[in-house]
Design goal:
heterodimer; A: alpha/beta; Rossmann fold; five-stranded parallel beta sheet; two-stranded antiparallel ribbon; 5 helices; 7 strands; B: mainly alpha; 20 helices
Chain lengths: 138, 408
């Protein structure tokens, strides 16, 4: 079973992924805003991250950049967004995303992608010590 | 306004505060006027002043408290709505995975919203399967019943919901609504919902017959060209069979013809590129411009469309020449290069700019022509434009490539 962190401000999407990925045997935790998402992401307790781009308090791509610059160079990250898809996809991949999934999506494809990406990842984080942000979570 | 709820309460409070302030200031004005005339003792004036200040303070306090309480209530209301949405999402996911029953009808608002949002989230077969589940739960019947409601808001909400749900069974009732709805807004929303529904039909006879019905309804809907264009784009993969039909109608209204040609270009429908080519010499300049733009977007000039493009380079209408200049990049080089060289000397700034940009997009032969134009085009404005586009291109790539580079 892989541990997945979903960072998205949409309560329906978070609950949907929590339950449906749970049915496929993945453990899912959620964060609803930028500070909570950043803190959880840098905790390095997950095998894979699913990030929205537009979050209350900041951008999901900033979380991705900080993750890639610090402890989570190897953690697979899927960016999930429904806005200006081509442009966002390019920006996400430039920022270090492993994959981009646009909304609407096929659940089987998303699950397949998660399983493919988590299969060969030995450790969620490298040796670097994460600097945790001081902002409070929601 | 930043407030989402409580307009009436806020309006009443502000009205009360303003009324109290106006009355207080009026009383103060009268008392102080009497004081000036020696008819009000100083003690009374002092008491009135203190009372007025106190009332103002209370009014400011009331407004502040309202704002603070409002924010607190809004936050708790949003949390409550989010938790309801989550709970209903769980109901739908369990129903989807057959670990829970379908919810009974009628659904409360969060239940409907969670179901429709899930439908919107899931694409392809997943989405269609979930739409089937929503229909089995009775959501389709409920929304169609609301569509027949006498309340306009309820009908609009039903149309919005049907647009999200995209139930195949709702397609014909939606087309009926486009034909019969009294207001343009309802016809627009019904068309949008019908277009989104048709876009979900798998390829085959059902999509073909749906496309025929949609095309006929849209042509007679009286919707503005922009709205019709939006519907055509929403059709996505179902657009070709819809676009083939109305564009073959000789008496099709010009705005719809323009919207259709434009949609062919925006959707990049190569198989329908003959359609814009066929109207490139249309008497209406906007249709001519749309046709040229569409061919430019598709990136191909079928049949003798090249001749239409060359002719349009000398059109009387500026925006037609602009589109022709952009499409001219698709002509064979031996035709395109001299045509665009001439376009650099057009009286219109827009045509000169489009010519220079088209030349730049032609690669090295175009860039060489641009450099030559910057150095020795007989028209001063053409030389300036060519030099400007070369400078812009060099600045955007960070490479050397100014107007003086490589001119023989």
């Amino acid at each position: 079973m892989s541990r997945v962190l979903v960072v998205d401000d949409d309560p329906m999407l978070c609950r949907f992924l929590e339950l449906s990925l749970g049915f496929h045997g993945h453990g899912v935790e959620t964060a609803r805003d930028y500070p909570a998402g950043l803190r959880a992401a840098l905790r390095c307790a997950y095998d894979l991250l699913i990030l929205d781009v537009f979050l209350p308090g900041g951008s999901g791509l900033d979380i991705l950049r900080r993750l890639r610059a610090g402890p989570g160079r190897e953690v697979p990250v899927i960016v999930l967004s429904g806005h200006h898809q081509e442009e966002i996809a390019d920006r996400a991949l430039d920022a270090g995303a492993t994959a981009y999934v646009g909304k609407p999506f096929l659940l089987e494809s998303l699950v397949g992608e998660i399983e493919r990406l988590t299969r060969e990842v030995p450790e969620p984080c490298g040796d670097d010590t994460a600097t945790l942000p001081t902002a409070s979570s929601s | 306004m930043w407030r989402r709820y409580g307009d009436a309460a806020y309006g009443l409070l502000v009205l009360t505060v303003f009324t109290v302030e106006v009355v207080t200031l009026g009383v103060l004005t009268v008392l102080f006027s009497m004081g000036l005339l020696g008819r009000a003792p100083g003690a009374v004036l002092g008491e009135a002043l203190i009372g007025a200040v106190g009332l103002t303070g209370l009014a400011v306090l009331a407004l502040t408290l309202y704002v603070l309480v409002y924010h607190g209530l809004t936050r708790s209301r949003e949390r409550h709505q989010a938790s309801q949405l989550e709970a209903w999402t769980e109901v739908w996911v369990r129903a989807l995975y057959r670990t829970g029953p379908l919810p009974p009808m009628p659904l409360p608002r969060p239940g409907l919203r969670a179901g429709l949002e899930m439908r919107e989230l899931l694409g392809g077969e997943d989405g269609r399967a979930f739409a089937g589940l929503l229909e089995r739960a009775g959501v389709g019947d409920d929304l169609l019943a609301s569509l027949r409601s006498r309340g306009r808001v309820r009908r609009l909400e039903a149309l919005d919901g049907l647009g999200w749900a995209r139930f195949p069974s709702a397609f014909n009732p939606l087309l009926d609504h486009v034909r019969t709805a009294p207001s343009e807004v309802e016809r627009l929303m019904a068309s949008r919902a019908a277009a989104r529904t048709l876009a979900e039909f798998p390829a085959g006879p059902e999509r073909e017959s749906g496309a025929a019905a949609f095309a006929g309804t849209l042509a007679r809907s009286g919707l503005p060209a922009g709205a019709a264009g939006e519907m055509l784009l929403l059709l996505d993969k179902a657009a070709p069979p819809v676009l083939e039909r109305p564009l073959a109608i000789p008496e099709l209204p010009v705005p719809l013809l323009r919207a259709g040609v434009d949609a062919i270009g925006r959707l990049g429908l190569v198989d329908l590129s003959e359609v814009p080519a066929g109207v490139a010499a249309h008497p209406d300049p906007e249709v001519r411009a749309s046709a040229l733009r569409a061919m430019g977007r598709i990136g191909t000039l079928p049949g003798d469309a090249g001749e239409s493009v060359v002719r349009s380079l000398h059109d009387d209408i500026e925006f037609v020449r602009v589109q022709a200049t952009r499409a001219a990049g698709l002509l064979p080089r031996r035709t395109a290069l001299p045509a665009l060289w001439n376009g650099l000397g057009d009286p219109s700034w827009w045509v000169r700019r489009a010519s220079a940009e088209s030349l730049h997009r032609l690669g090295e032969p175009g860039a060489l022509t641009l450099r030559q134009a910057a150095a020795r085009h007989p028209d001063r404005f053409a030389r300036d434009m060519a030099a400007q586009v070369l400078r812009d291109a060099a600045a955007s790539t960070g490479a050397a490539g100014g107007p003086e580079e490589g001119v023989a």
